[in-house]
Design brief:
Pdz3 Domain, mainly beta, six-stranded antiparallel beta barrel, about 400 residues, single chain, 6 helices, 25 strands, Thrombin, subunit H
Length: about 400
């Protein structure tokens, strides 16, 4: 989960299809992505707690027993780009490599949530996963399912006669910038490490481990997370899990004050599918697009300077079935190529579309089979097209 300075050309995803943008960012996972300029936020609470909030000591004593240390063994060398996401590697026997992360117990039956990148790389799942409960109680775990597009995995251990501490998933939609949060995990294999911070921003969009998808609604925090924190919980001041720590933003390779967690509401939705089906279903439009801006609109003489132009339509996909029109590519006198003539999406379900994240966030809040209206410009003519969201192919 490392992010380093790279190019300003972004590959984003609408429901799993790459969408090309021209934005500037430097992300620690080694790819570009849409991260806005971040203003610093100070705590300013003087250490005072609101009614019902717990102090750090209480959070730790009551809920740390529900956090586990996870070790994954891979029988082949993992590709170097896998380490774009943070974790902690240790020497292992010949032809094997161990990867370490964190997780949280969500059910007495032994269900454990972690990051997909803790137990799966770009080629294969771990051949062996062990979970450390406390300091010395180690038990093997089964991978029930993974969803790389949201970086979530569900594991299962045999609880035996253990009285497992279950952690509750809270409602991440209630978070506000400035809320106190706590991360507990195993950074650098230091089990049971706790750090404190605040929610420094909400609704960030980050890359998934395979870089094909975008994860929307991510929680940004300044609570320190480091290699080995992957998959561990982010608690609110009431002791509820509001996120799963997943990535950091850094130029040095070390924690630089910005970390990202997958929101608990996303976790809850995906985990239910993983437990039932071993995989998660996600809706998609089936387009590749480019964000509009004033310069681009002037260049192509478009009727609007906000929205998303449909550059390409996936054959047989939802957008294709709804009749959306993709662009043709033209070349200017300097040899630069740009799309022309594609439908420009300005609203989806009545919600204004100004960038790709607007589409992603709307689609992410819906289900496969939902029918939604798209307000588009085809040339200078505004019209409404109804599209039925399809299921994103597993390889998209």
């Amino acid at each position: 989960m490392w992010r380093t300075a790279l190019t300003s050309f972004i590959a984003a995803v609408v429901g799993g299809l790459l969408v090309f943008l021209a934005l500037h960012s430097t992300l620690s996972n080694g790819t570009t992505g849409a991260i806005n300029t971040i203003n610093s936020v100070t705590k300013g609470t003087g250490g005072q707690k609101s009614p019902g909030e717990l102090v750090a000591e209480d959070i730790y004593s009551q809920y740390a027993p529900g956090v586990v240390h996870i070790k994954s063994t891979f029988t082949e060398n993992r590709p170097s780009n896998f380490f774009n996401f943070f974790g902690f590697t240790t020497p292992a026997p010949a032809q094997q490599q161990e990867y370490s992360g964190s997780g949280l117990i969500i059910d007495k039956s032994g269900l454990i949530v972690t990051n997909a990148h803790v137990v799966q790389n770009s080629k294969t799942k771990a051949s062996k996963v062990t979970v450390l409960l406390g300091e010395q109680d180690e038990v093997e775990a089964k991978i029930l399912g993974t969803d790389p597009s949201t970086d979530i995995a569900l594991l299962k251990i045999d609880p035996g006669n253990r009285n497992l501490k279950v952690l509750e998933l809270g409602d991440s939609s209630k978070l506000k910038v400035g809320d106190t949060v706590y991360a507990i995990g195993s950074p650098f294999e230091l089990n049971g490490t706790m750090t404190e911070g605040i929610v420094s921003a909400l609704n960030r969009t980050i890359d998934s481990p395979n870089h094909q998808f975008r994860i929307t609604g991510a929680i940004q925090t300044d609570a320190a997370v480091n290699p080995g924190n992957s998959g561990g919980p982010l608690f609110d001041a009431h002791g509820e899990v509001v996120g799963i720590n997943s990535q950091i933003y850094t130029e040095s390779g070390s924690f630089s004050g910005i970390a990202f967690a997958i929101p608990s509401n996303t976790v809850r939705q995906v985990v239910g599918q993983l437990e039932k089906n071993g995989k998660a279903s996600h809706p998609w439009l089936g387009i590749a697009g480019k964000e509009m801006d004033k310069d681009f609109a002037k260049l192509i003489k478009a009727p609007v300077d906000k929205g998303v132009m449909v550059v390409q339509v996936v054959s047989g996909g939802p957008a294709d079935k709804a009749g959306l029109k993709g662009a043709r590519i033209e070349t200017d006198e300097n040899g630069a190529q740009y799309p022309v003539g594609g439908d420009i999406i300005v609203k989806i379900g009545g919600v204004d579309v100004t960038n790709m994240n607007d589409l992603l966030n709307f689609i992410g809040g819906h289900k496969v089979g939902d029918k939604v209206p798209l307000e588009i410009y085809r040339g200078s003519r505004k019209q409404t097209v109804t599209i039925e969201l399809g299921e994103r192919p597993q390889n998209q």
